[in-house]
Structure formats: C-alpha cells, structure tokens
Amino acid sequence: GESVGLHLPTLSVQEGDNSIINCAYSNSASDYFIWYKQESGKGPQFIIDIRSNMDKRQGQRVTVLLNKTVKHLSLQIAATQPGDSAVYFCAENIVGNQFYFGTGTSLTVIP
Amino acid sequence: EAQVTQNPRYLITVTGKKLTVTCSQNMNHEYMSWYRQDPGLGLRQIYYSMNVEVTDKGDVPEGYKVSRKEKRNFPLILESPSPNQTSLYFCASSFGYSPLHFGNGTRLTVT
Description:
The complex is a heterodimer. Chain A is mainly β. Chain A has strands at 4-5, 10-14, 19-25, 32-38, 45-51, 56-58, 62-67, 72-77, 86-93, 99-101, 105-110. The relative contact order of chain A is 0.34. The model of chain A has no long low-confidence stretch (mean pLDDT 89). By secondary structure, chain B is mostly beta strands. In chain B, the strands form 2 sheets. In chain B, strands 2, 4, 5, 6, 9, 10 and 11 form a 7-stranded mixed beta sheet that branches. The interface between A and B is medium-sized, with 23 and 24 residues.
C-alpha cells in the first residue's frame, strides 16, 4: 500500500506558541488529504481536510498547507493549548474512500 | 448524536477462540472499514465495505472476516485468533468523498 510519512515522531511546544506538524506523501495521484487528532483512549477525530486543487485551508486555530511540488503536507496550530496534546495523523486518499495513514506525531504542550 | 459504536472496548481471549467485534453507525453511511493500530505502524486497513453485501480486503486481511448484511453494522470476526492479532482496532464510516468517522476502539489481547 501507499506509505505516508511524518518527519518527526514527537513534538513539544510551549503553551501559546504555534505548532507545525509535517507529513510527506509519495503518491502524486493523491487528491484529498485529512488531518486527524487522536487523544489517549479515543479514536481519531477529524480536524481539517484539503483537496489537491487548493494549497491552503484554514479552520479554527488550524491551517493546513499542501505543497504538491514536493508532496508535503503540514498542519499549523495557532496558540497551542494543553488540550491540543495528542497524536496527529495525516491521511491521503487516492481513490474512493480508501485512505492511507501516517504513523503519527505526538504533540506535547508544556504549560 | 452521530457516532460509530464499537463493542467491546476491551477484550482478552485465548488463541483459537472465535470472537466478534461489533461496529454500528447511525449516520446512514455507505462506506465502513476496519483498521488495526500498532505502535510504529500507524493505522492499517483490514477490510472495507462500499455498501451492503459489498466487502473487500484492505492491506492486512489475513486472519479476519467481515460481513455487511445491514447498512449500519459491520462486524469484524476472528475465527481463530492468534497472539499477532493483539492490537487496537478501529471501525470507521463515511459518506461519499468525505472524512472517516471513527469509533473509540477495541483493545484486543490474545494470549
């Protein structure tokens, strides 16, 4: 299957700082990408998505950037809060409802 | 409340004893899928279903069975569990070309 990789397995940030979580994908045919947040003991929760006809999309405190040239995806979290501590996954969709997931980055917010 | 419900949340069993993990969604989603999550490997797809009576293998289907007799239910069956199937399992569903909704997981231990 397709592999989706993350540059860093762990990330620690001070409360109030901005966080950036990166993801590399390898299939240039991928046209839909999603970021998920997974808190301990819970299933992944949808954060934000982006389609390949866009290079940036903003939500509440989160922004996803897509660079198709280098096949790179990033999630930016503004003013990181303790409740943002979790594991973050990127997922790429190639066809239909089939997604491939990265291994995740563990974000720790230091109060 | 829109949700994907898995049962049980925790299960400890012995090698060879057949078990079923249930999954139910109340969102009328056509697509449902099972994943396993292992440290360092991320989420890997076991089986998926595009609609009632339509199922297909994912990346790691060996040792698992599924059925989709009704739209809302998608049980995962382990006919003869083995220790290498000890993992955290997630069921997910979606409608069309949209993000997956995940259950809260089933932690299975096979001794």
